[in-house]
Structure of Leucine-rich repeat receptor-like protein kinase pepr2:
Amino acid sequence: MEKLAVKTKGLLLICSLILISTVFCESDNSISAMEKSEKEGLYYAIQGFVGNWWNGSELFPDPCGWTPIQGVSCDLFDGFWYVTVLNIGKIQDNSLKCQPNAEFRRHVFELKHLQTLSFINCFNFPHQHPVFIETDNWDKLAGSLVSLEFRLNPGLIGQIPPSFGSLTNLQSLVLLENGLTGGLPANLGNLVSLKRIVLAGNKFSGQIPASLGGLTELLILDSSRNNLTGTLPLTFGGLTSLLKLDMSNNLLDGMLPNELGNLKNLTLLDLRNNRLSGGLTKSLEEMISLEEMALSNNPIGGNLMTIEWQNLQNLVSLDLSYMSLTGSVPESMTVLRRLRFLGLNHNNLSGNLSPKLAALPSLSALYMNGNNLTGKLEFSEWFYGKMGRRFGAWSNPNLCYPVELMSTGHVPFGVKPCQQGVTLLEANSNIKISSDEDSNQKYSILVSLGYSINVVDGSYWKVVLVKQIVIVLLMNYIL
């Protein structure tokens, strides 16, 4: 019986090994099913970027097998493996890193099912080894490519190829922080499937194509940090799906178009550091989803009172500094309960600040410095203690805070205490004050001597503390 049991166990072991061998063989056959042209195209394309030393010899049985290449993904089409993702550059520690003289090779366009292509921190030598984006052959990827990205490549120079306009299935185009120049091709408007277009941090110039306003599925449009000129296209009013619009740090001029009010889904509007003018368009109050609005460093001018700020209940950050704004701070801003940051500094604002601003539950930074605000600040000691230097009210010469707060140690930085002294002066009809400046100067002198002033029936009355002065003179004489 024991011998029979041993034989049975041995037979089961042999059967198990045969079964495992069969599974692995079948698995191996399925993994290795990559067309020769696809494999060669991938290898030649990679060698153009990382160097001819790379031959994929460590891969088994191929790039889509058990030891795949970092940055390369595959998928099955008609029973064969094809490359769908190719990421080149310093993405992870074991990613394919580019050689100094990296170059485009036509083989990348032979990857017929390629969906995602990215180059990150790959072309880094604009003077020694400048690289241009391949101008032809992009139409070969028109049927498959949905994401194209060039990020952090200072050595990538030249213009956007017009052939990009053939990539009609593209959903994401990212050209971020490269050395690209020239204008934006009008045929980018052909990319009607785009949901994201990021062109920030290059040296693009010229006007923004009006054709971009036809990208009705667009969610993110970022062309910040370039040298773009001209006005914001009126066609931007058609980008009704847009969530984020960032055109900051350019050379844009003209007025804010009324059509911006059509962007009901927009959460970010960033137009900082341009040359926009003409006042605040009233249609801004119709952008009801806005969470962040940044228009600072533009000579826009105008009055804050033209906007019904209470309509923008989702605002979290509002930066309107350095805009030559006039008038007073609207009471309607005091109902923006989600507001965390409010920057109105360095304008020409006047009038008093409403104490209701301090009651905003989310407010953590309030900058009003560099204006012509007047009167007494009616904020609490607790408010000043909470905000610290994040409450900016300095450089408002006619603004002051209650003198009783001095004893608490929580006072607004750079703001003077209000003066409240009252003293009668000796009547003297011959005294004349020639100007407010003289009056202020005399007031300062009298206060420094222990006097105070008050105006009674247009005359100055002076009370001299004779007893104290005599005592001081006697002490000086004795000593």
About this structure: The two ends are 130 Å apart (CA to CA).
